[in-house]
Every structure is written in structure tokens, then in C-alpha cells.
Specification:
The structure holds two protein chains of two kinds. Chain A is built from nine helices and 22 strands. Chain A has helices at residues 2-8, 11-20, 78-83, 110-138, 165-199, 257-268, 295-324, 347-379, 386-414, and strands at 22-36, 44-54, 57-61, 63-65, 89-96, 103-106, 160-161, 204-219, 227-239, 242-246, 274-279, 287-288, 327-328, 417-421, 426-429, 432-440, 446-459, 464-477, 484-491, 500-501, 505-517, 522-535. By secondary structure, chain B is mainly β. Chain B has one domain (2-108): Immunoglobulin-like, CATH 2.60.40. In chain B, strands 2, 4, 5, 7, 8 and 9 form a six-stranded mixed sheet that branches. A three-stranded antiparallel sheet of chain B has the order 1-3-6. The relative contact order of chain B is 0.30. The chains are: A alpha+beta, B mainly beta. The A-B interface holds A 453, 455, 457-462, 464-466, 468, 470-471, 492-498, 500, 502-505, 507, 509, 532-535, 538 and B 14, 41, 43-45, 47, 49, 75-78, 80, 82-85, 87, 110-111, 115-120.
Chain lengths: 543, 120
């Protein structure tokens, strides 16, 4: 709730709120210019002045736009800045109804509405979660979390699967929000640079007079110490009898520091010289020094694809949930207290192995790409980028860990499975029972096999658990041939603490089987055993 | 007002009688009276439960200034002093729905001692 309140206090909310109170009236644009500044968020700042009449009274104002959050481009170039300005003359002006002296040239945009929708969704989600948690605490209801149930509570009931309709609606709304976000990101960082970069192939080679080429540091936020280096270019050219100026080097999302310093080093020596450039014959105010597509645009494509894929999955999941609705699953069978042999390799284990293998291979592939990039740099006589080297090493190490984990998963699955028979649902203190055990499967990778009695205190506060191995009931070391099976007589002493299950705390007994194989492969299974507080004598059993 | 148990060492085996008396202050008018036997789980989480509850006649209790009570020690859970959690038994008198007079902790255990972390 606190976060939601904080979000609602954000300036953008005030802007959005303000937009709702504005009215469009005709006005006249008197003056436009672009100032170069180095201490603000943008290297260039639009300056406008316009007049308008509201409620019979004449005003002049200089506001440009209300919702600049989605249009701020720290890499904006001079020509882009200049071309963004409207031409002088009649225009529409957005006036604050309550304070007509405040007016802006641009009204509300879809970006503001998207932000409004996102804020609304965030607020509603946080409020619902907070209310649910607060209500659950107040009414002493269990909070949703994964718990291991006691043996008597292990009878699973049929439950409903599939998302509920409300969840599906939320998913759809979030999907639309993410889709819009990815579109906006793609628009500014991917599609526009890519289309423009492609179009530069058809631009006319020309001569431009280079006036400035330097790296400058600007502050991204006025009130924060967040500085960024940018390439500050400025060149002039004549086209069709008119003089133009531009500052764009290439259509790209961004330049790396290395590229930037290389450009400055190369062009810095040619200040005042005529250099080759490419001019758009259809819009001569657009010019670049270098055509083609940059690497950063490729990275932005990847990011946009991930976001688009995420939004697509959300939309598909939400739509399917809405169409199908929640469905009742098949009743689950009652749990058997005797594990069946041989236990098949579970679906989740097989899936985990498959996913791990895919992840490991993907990470290795990425690492190889960075290695190839470094080799290519070396071949072309350049020192490899430190970032690429670090990424190659990091991803390589990550792939190694993932492969090792995958091998361990496979080794775990190759271990023999333990079949236990005769575990009672509950036993009084002082009673005995016969526990049968049998190892099923390939015994050759076996290093050790243990059956332990484990006492466990468990509290619901962060799932803190205190465990103590109370007795090692069986300890088999070394490989086994043929089959490994037997029977143990387990007596629960009268002094054993009985099982206890509270709302948020419990004490329970577990029979734990631990099979250890080669290469740190370990398979551990737990079988809860309820110890009743009464003794056999209490319940009238005599032996 | 205070709660006094008959035993100086308040340890009971399951099934034994827990006897004692509530000595009342004559200047305090009594409208409602409840005496409860319950246990509290202490540790990282706190929870409690009531095993038995007596509601003596407040008029009679006020007149006699002493109210005797008897509970049968329950069979579970046993008093426990573990690492993550403790189970402690307690008798509590609630007067006029507000004032609480406790007598804690009792030990309910077959060994007359709280159980310790697990052992077989």
C-alpha cells in the first residue's frame, strides 16, 4: 500500500491528472528555436513561444509538452530536434482550464494513458494483495504458501486447475500493457533506427563542413548526480541553395564509449575540413556521417523480441483462461504408504533435466558468440572489447556450472530407488513396527545407503526448520551386487516427543532414506511418521 | 487476586488432576469469571490454544472470595523445550472479560519434565 501511495505521488501522475483538465484552443506559434545545453537531461532543448485566446483574453506561453516521459531521447540530435518543431503560424494549444496562463503546444499522448493504465494495474494489484494478506492475518486464515502436510492430511482432494476468469483478465490487461511497452520501446529504439538506417543506403553522398566533434558529459537528471557522456557533433552543408546543420553520426540506439572515443579521435583532427556525409534528398535537413545498421540496434531487437514474446504469452494465457475457465481436475488417488517399485522416472525430473540441458547449451552458445567476436577483433587487428571478454568468460563459467548440474541430475536419476514397506500412518510411543526396505534399479553406482530417523521442528516464520538426525537405522557403505533388501524393527521409545501440529509450528518425525552415488549424486526421500502421545498401554494394547 | 496451584512443583502427568484455587479481591466486583487451561507455542511464531475452560458462578465466587478449580491434564501436546519452538502450558483466570491472572508455566509430561529436542 505504501508503495502504491508512493507511486501515486509520482510527478507523472500529476501530469496525467493535469492533462485531464486541459482544453485545446487555436493559437499562433510565434517563435521556435533549439538551444544546445549541457547541464540538463537533454543535450538540446526546444524553445517555443506562442499566443492564444482563452475566454476572450489573450495570453502568451512557452510550454512545449506535458508528457515528455516517453519522448525524451538523450541521444537526440540537432536535426531531429529541429525537425520535431512545428512550423510557425496557426497551431493548436492545450490550455489549463483552471489557470489559463499555463498552456502547452502538445496535448496528452497515448504514452501518458499507457502510464495511467499501468499505474492503475499496479495500484489495484498491490491493494488486493495487501487486503488479502491483512484479512488473512486478521481472521487467522492460512496464508498461501507451499506446505508439507502431515501424513494424515496427505489425502489430496480434487482441485480446480487453470486460471480463474479474474486472473485471466489481469493477465490480459498486463499483456496489453507489456505489448504496448515493447511497441514503444521498439518504436524509439528499434524500428525507427532500423528503418532510417536502411533508408540511408539511398541517400546522396555529399560534402559537409565539420564544426565540432567532441565528447561531452551531461546530467540525465537535474537533481541527481547521474552523468552520461555523449557524442557532440555539429556539421553544416548546403543543399538546394539552402544551408543545413546536423549532429547525427549514424542512426543507432546508442554508441559504445569505445565507438564514441574512436569517432572523436578520428574526426577531431578534421575540424573545419570538408568531410563526406549522406543527405536525404527527400528531406535535406536529415544527414548522417555513416550509413548502415549498428550492433546496438541488434541488441535492442533482441530485447524487444523478448518483451513481445512475454506479452504474447500473457495474451495467449489470458485469452485461453477466459475461453476455457477453471476446470476440475481428476480426483487424485489416495496415497499409498508403501512405495511401489520400480518408481518410474518422474515427468518433472525428466523435464528439469531437459530444461537444464537446453539452458546449458544456450549459455554455451552465447559464450561462443562472444569468443568469436573477440577472435574477430584480434583478426582485424583490434584489441577485444573488455565487455565481450568478460561476457565470454562469465557465460562460459555459467555454462560449465549448468552442465555439471545437469550431469548431477542425470546421475541422481540413475541412482537406485528405495522401496519402503510397512511404514505405519501413526504409532503410539513405546510401540514397534517392521520396516521393509529394498533398493530397486541399477546398484553399480551406489556408494552408500542410509535409513535415518529424523526429528524436525518447523515454524512458519520464513520456513525455519531445525532438524536433528536422531538415529541411523541402517548404514550400508560401498557398492552392492544383486539386490539390497532387508527388514528393520523400529521401536519408538516412550520418551520420544510425540508429533505435534499447530497452525504455524509443528514437530514431526521422518523416516529418511539417503542413497549416495558416484559424483556427488544423492537421492533423499522423506516419509513422515506420526508418533501419538499415548502409549500402547494407554490405549489398552498388551504384549 | 492470584492463582495458586496445590502442588508446589507444577508438573503433571497426562490424566492427573490439576487442582488449585483462585483467590479473589473482595473490593473488585465480579460480573464474569473464566478459568482456562491452555498451551502456548513460543518461538519464531506465537500461537496458543485452549484445552479446557471453566466458568464458575461469579456471585458465589465473590461471596466466598475463593474459587477452587480442577482440570484433567490433557494427553497432548507435552511440554516441550526445543530449538525453534517451545510448548508451554498455562492456567489463566479472566475476570470481567479483561483482567487476566496467569499461573504459568505448568509442565504436562509423562516424565514430569519438559521434552527436549528429539531423542529416541
Amino acid at each position: 500500500m505504501g508503495l502504491a501511495a508512493y507511486v501515486l505521488r509520482m510527478p507523472v501522475w500529476e501530469r496525467i491528472e493535469a492533462q485531464m483538465l486541459h482544453e485545446a484552443v487555436p493559437g499562433t506559434l510565434i517563435e521556435t528555436k533549439v538551444d544546445r545545453i549541457l547541464d540538463g537531461r537533454l543535450p538540446y532543448k526546444h524553445q517555443v513561444r506562442f499566443s492564444y485566446v482563452y475566454s476572450g483574453q489573450s495570453y502568451q506561453a512557452t510550454g512545449l509538452r506535458l508528457d515528455s516521459y516517453f519522448t525524451d531521447d538523450v541521444y537526440a540530435s540537432w536535426d531531429a530536434a529541429a525537425s520535431a518543431l512545428p512550423s510557425l503560424g496557426p497551431t493548436l494549444v492545450w490550455v489549463d482550464r483552471e489557470q489559463p496562463t499555463n498552456a502547452w503546444l502538445h496535448g496528452p499522448s497515448w504514452g501518458a494513458l499507457a502510464m495511467l493504465l499501468t499505474l492503475f494495474l499496479v495500484f489495484c494489484s498491490l491493494t488486493l494483495v495487501s487486503l488479502y494478506v491483512a484479512g488473512a492475518i486478521a481472521l487467522n486464515l492460512p496464508l498461501p504458501r507451499i506446505r508439507r502436510e502431515s501424513p494424515l492430511a496427505q489425502v489430496k482432494r480434487p482441485q480446480r486447475t487453470g486460471p480463474r476468469r479474474l486472473t485471466s483478465l489481469w493477465l490480459l490487461a498486463l499483456g496489453f500493457a507489456v505489448a504496448y511497452g515493447s511497441f514503444k520501446l521498439g518504436e524509439s529504439a528499434v524500428y525507427f533506427p532500423l528503418i532510417k538506417a536502411e533508408s540511408t543506403k539511398h541517400w546522396q553522398p555529399h560534402d559537409c563542413l565539420l564544426l565540432r566533434a567532441e565528447e561531452v558529459t551531461i546530467n540525465r537528471h537535474r537533481n541527481r548526480k547521474s552523468a552520461i557522456d555523449i557524442l557532440d557533433l555539429h556539421y553544416q552543408y548546403n543543399w538546394g541553395g539552402r544551408s543545413y546543420a546536423s549532429s547525427r553520426y549514424q542512426y543507432t540506439y546508442r554508441l559504445t564509449p569505445r565507438q564514441r572515443s574512436g569517432i572523436v579521435r578520428r574526426l577531431g583532427r578534421r575540424i573545419g575540413d570538408s568531410i563526406p556525409c549522406y543527405v536525404n534528398p527527400d528531406a535535406p535537413e536529415e544527414a548522417v556521417l555513416k550509413g548502415g545498421i549498428s550492433n546496438w540496434s541488434g541488441a535492442a531487437v533482441f530485447m524487444t523480441l523478448i518483451l513481445t514474446l512475454t506479452s504474447g504469452l500473457m495474451l495467449i494465457g489470458g485469452s485461453q483462461g477466459l475461453v476455457r475457465g477453471p476446470q476440475a481436475s481428476k480426483p487424485l488417488p489416495l496415497p499409498s504408504r508403501t512405495s511401489k517399485a520400480p518408481l518410474p522416472k518422474t515427468k518433472s525430473e525428466a523435464q528439469a533435466t531437459k530444461i537444464m540441458r537446453l539452458l546449458a547449451r544456450g549459455t554455451l552458445g552465447l559464450s561462443c558468440l562472444f569468443v568469436i567476436r573477440c577472435i574477430w577483433d584480434l583478426v582485424t587487428g583490434r584489441f577485444p572489447e573488455l565487455g565481450s571478454l568478460a561476457a565470454a568468460v562469465f557465460l562460459g563459467m555459467m555454462a560449465r556450472s549448468l552442465f555439471r548440474f545437469e550431469r548431477r541430475l542425470v546421475a541422481n536419476q540413475a541412482l537406485p530407488q528405495v522401496q519402503l514397506t510397512g511404514i505405519p500412518l501413526g504409532m503410539p510411543r513405546g510401540s514397534s513396527f517392521e520396516l521393509g526396505y529394498r533398493l530397486v534399479g541399477e546398484l553399480s553406482p551406489l556408494r552408500s545407503f542410509q535409513i535415518q530417523a529424523l526429528g524436525q521442528e518447523w515454524t512458519d516464520d520464513g520456513d525455519s526448520v531445525s532438524e536433528r538426525v536422531v538415529a541411523v537405522l541402517l548404514d550400508h557403505r560401498g557398492a552392492a551386487t544383486g539386490s539390497l533388501s532387508g527388514q528393520l524393527t523400529i521401536t519408538i521409545p516412550k520418551t520420544a516427543m510425540p508429533s505435534f501440529r499447530g497452525t504455524n509450528a509443528r514437530f514431526e518425525w521422518l523416516i529418511v532414506t539417503k542413497v549416495e552415488g558416484e559424483g556427488q549424486a544423492i537421492r533423499t526421500d522423506q516419509h513422515p511418521l506420526t508418533v501419538f502421545a499415548m502409549t500402547e498401554t494407554d490405549v489398552g494394547v498388551t504384549r | 487476586m492470584n492463582l495458586v496451584l496445590d502442588r508446589s512443583n507444577p508438573a503433571y502427568r497426562p490424566g492427573e488432576r490439576i487442582e488449585g484455587e483462585l483467590r479473589l479481591d473482595p473490593s473488585t466486583p465480579i460480573r464474569t469469571l473464566k478459568i482456562t487451561l491452555g498451551f502456548a507455542v513460543e518461538g519464531r511464531v506465537q500461537e496458543s490454544d485452549i484445552a479446557d475452560c471453566l466458568e464458575p458462578d461469579p456471585t458465589f465466587a465473590q461471596a466466598s472470595r475463593v474459587c477452587r478449580f480442577t482440570f484433567i491434564a490433557p494427553h497432548e501436546p507435552f511440554s516441550y523445550e526445543g530449538q525453534e519452538l517451545r510448548i508451554r502450558w498455562c492456567i489463566e483466570a479472566e475476570i470481567n472479560g479483561k483482567k487476566r491472572v496467569p499461573a504459568c508455566p505448568l509442565v504436562i509430561s509423562p516424565t514430569l519434565l519438559p521434552f527436549q529436542p528429539p531423542f529416541l
